[in-house]
Amino acid sequence: MKQKIVIRVQINCDKCRSKAMQLVAEADGVDSVAIEGENKDQLVVVGDGVDPANVTILLRKKVGRATIVKVEEVKDDAEKKSETTVQKIETMVQWYPNYPPCPQAVWYDCESSSSNPNACSIM
Known about the structure:
The chain has a 4-stranded antiparallel sheet, with helices on one face. A two-stranded antiparallel sheet has the order 5-6. Helices cover 34% and strands 29% of the residues. It has a domain at 2-73: 2-Layer Sandwich (Alpha-Beta Plaits). The protein has helices at 14-25, 52-62, 77-95; strands at 2-9, 30-36, 42-48, 66-73, 108-110, 120-122.
């Protein structure tokens, strides 16, 4: 299960920022690390099996103040595509709710060799 973890870190300079990113990137299960926020004080960690508490404790020991802002599950692209497909189908069904069903096709077998042109039989 992939997780997206947002951690607010007290970062005073570029050196502290790169140190924090390097520490988090070396943690087990981390896929990517990014910096967000108005003051560039939030680390966004995406990974599989990452323990937010351990990452926060590591940052507190090496960098300074660190608090967990949020932890949420990240959905895969395949799940997103299947959800959008289901939503499109549902909207198509809702678009024509009272549309009548298609009539069944009836085929006639008319022989041109017969003397009566109106003599046709249903197949």
